[in-house]
Amino acid sequence: QDISFADLFALQPLGMTWMGDQTTLMPGYPLLKVYVYGDEVWDICGFNAKIIQYYTALPSYSEYFVNLSGLQYTYNTSYAVTDVNAYAYDDYACTGSVSDIDDDESTLYPMIIDSYVMSMLLSDSIQSILTAMGFSIEPKLSDTTVITESNMGDARLEQVAGGDVDEYQCWQAFADYLTDELSGTIPNDPYGSDLGRINP
User: Fold this and answer.
1) Cα 74 from chain centroid?
2) Tens-of-pLDDT digits for all 200 residues of the chain?
3) Which among 50, 72, 83, 200 would be 20 to 30 A from 183, CA to CA?
4) pTM (2 d.p.)
């Protein structure tokens, strides 16, 4: 079955960079590589579990579901996270080797996020909600410098390292995945509608 551009755009809108060192003719939210401590990974999962709790009670909020790749977490009947594990990026069923993520600040974990979501995360409104829920999520550069709106550009992924920054945009990663990894065909496994991806 052919996949229309409209369908792809609905999954991954183009967006636009905010950096003046990029050509305005190339649309797309740039991807960022940031780092978080283990306890922040737990808080990311905890925040996601709370979103699930809210849309379970109020289904109209289901569109705000947060997608996490490479993580599997368990939550109890109170929607409190009890376990967090990391898996290989292509281990969709989470059946291979696993790495337990400790709820502490002993290890930094890399995370890929696009600039749009990052800007939302840094906003006063989202940070206030996180604080009210008892969560703390402060993505960092590799040297542990906390990322702000002013230094967010330092976390951009590049298509080719070195020289002038040529951003690797979110839509490009999506297109590369569809063409290079999936060869243009979206398989039923693991993307079929019969797969339950949330298991309390």
Assistant:
1) 18
2) 566 777 777 777 777 777 766 666 677 888 999 999 999 999 999 999 998 888 888 777 666 667 788 888 999 999 999 999 998 877 777 788 888 899 999 899 999 998 888 999 999 999 999 999 999 999 999 999 999 999 998 898 887 776 677 788 888 888 788 787 777 677 766 666 555 555 44
3) 72
4) 0.82
3-state secondary structure string across 72-110: EEEECCCCCEEEEEECCCCCCCCCCCCEECCCCCCCEEE
Give me the phi and psi of 125, to 5 degrees please.
-65, -45
Give the angle 186-190-194 at the CA atoms, nearest 5°: 105
Q: Is the peptide bond before 190 cis (omega within 30 degrees of 0)?
A: yes
Give the burial class of 111: count Cβ atoms within 10 A of its Cβ; 0-12 exposed, 13-18 middle, 19 or more buried: buried
Amino acid at 74: T
Cα separation of 148 and 150, whole Å?
5
DSSP 48: H
